[in-house]
Fold:
Amino acid sequence: MSRILIIEDNKDVNFMLSETLSEAGYEVCPAYTGIEGVNKAKSEEFDLMLLDIMLPYKSGDVVLKEVRVFSDIPVIIISAKDMVHTKIEMLKLGADDYITKPFDLGEVAARVETLLRRIQKQKEKVQTYSFKELTLDCNAKRFFVKEGEVELTAKEYLIMELFLRNQDRIFTKAKLYETIWGEEYLGDDNTVKTHISNLRNKIKNGNTKEEYIETVWGLGYRLNKSVK
Structure:
């Protein structure tokens, strides 16, 4: 089930959008300020974002700029601003679509479905993910360091795939555990730490001196962008 983040300060509009998309089979998460929306986008996984421009504390254009630093999530702008230059500006900032208020709820649901379908087709075309000396072949489920294959366990492969699919994102231990193991995280760090340690050792054994998985103290793990 696709998850949709709705950042809209008008509670009635947010409720109507949430209700319509829930009935269409999506899981929805409401946010009512720009700050709340950015925080949720950073801490949770979503497949699409509906974003208003006129938001309290942090406007929609600022939200979009900040989100595009760490995520390529599809974004549909929903705004009362119908000036052409505003639409162009938001599309240049990274929005995928723009709907002007007042809108038809059925049209919003159709736009969401169409965009998600297009994004899914694009993802299906991606057969490999690469980062510096690392390559992941998603079709063959094989992992390479400097073109030499490195054998990974199923869980190690899933962790590496998660990192390579989200190269700018920091993953907490809780998020890694709940995503990879599919169970509630109860605070035991050993499982995640052991798998990260094993991954690091296997990558180094693939004839590289680089530390590709970086620990961000107090936050979690991510790919090390300082690797040359």
Q: What stands out?
A: Residues 105-125 form the longest helix (21 residues). The chain has two domains: 3-125, 128-223. Residues 84 and 186 are 50 Å apart (CA to CA).
